[in-house]
Write a structure and sequence with these properties.
By secondary structure, this protein is of the alpha+beta class. It has three helices and eight strands. It has one domain (about 20-150): Immunoglobulin-like (Sandwich). Helix content is about 20%, strand content about 55%. Strands 1, 2, 3, 4, 5, 6, 7 and 8 form an eight-stranded antiparallel β-sheet that branches. The chain is elongated. The termini are far apart.
């Protein structure tokens, strides 16, 4: 009898844990725009739509990520702390500005000799949480830096 009671209790606990575990939200990038470029970094305006499939609200806590200009060519890292609520079983747009500090300006060297724009990808994570839940949802946003922006920031020596 004790064995059946333990098994039933264990099954109930596992069932409750699975029923209460959150479903991962999805992040859909909408906008990535360069606001300014300087010798120390770049400021990006980033907007993402966060879809919350859960029955409880989530809160946008942070957006963090890296800018890459080619496979394995990381220019820098950045983060921001937007504040916003994603309603239960709903969608909300999270708008923020991410300051990315340059860590590898040498990765821009090949692009400075070409007149065209420098394509980049911001590989980010949106950190959302609520009701004792903390989730990091990956996303990517593509954009471009113009040669004029880079030269205007004083990066002509690279």
């Amino acid at each position: 009898m004790r064995s059946i009671l333990r098994t039933s209790l264990a099954s109930l606990i596992v069932g409750l844990a699975l029923a209460c575990s959150p479903t991962m939200p999805t992040v859909t990038p909408q906008v990535a725009r360069v606001l300014w470029v300087s010798p120390v970094g770049v400021r990006l305006a980033i907007e993402v739509d966060v879809h919350n499939p859960n029955s409880f609200a989530l809160y946008a806590n942070a957006i963090e990520g890296v800018i890459e200009v080619g496979p394995g060519s990381t220019l820098g890292y950045g983060h921001a702390f937007p504040r916003g609520t994603i309603p239960p079983e709903g969608v909300a747009r999270v708008v923020t500005q991410v300051d990315v500090q340059w860590t590898n300006l040498g990765a821009l060297t090949p692009f400075l000799v070409n007149p065209g724009p420098v394509p980049y990808v911001f590989k980010g994570k949106a950190r959302v949480g609520g009701d004792g839940v903390s989730l990091a949802v990956p996303f990517e946003v593509n954009g471009q830096l113009t040669r004029a922006e880079l030269i205007g920031a004083g990066l002509r020596g690279f």
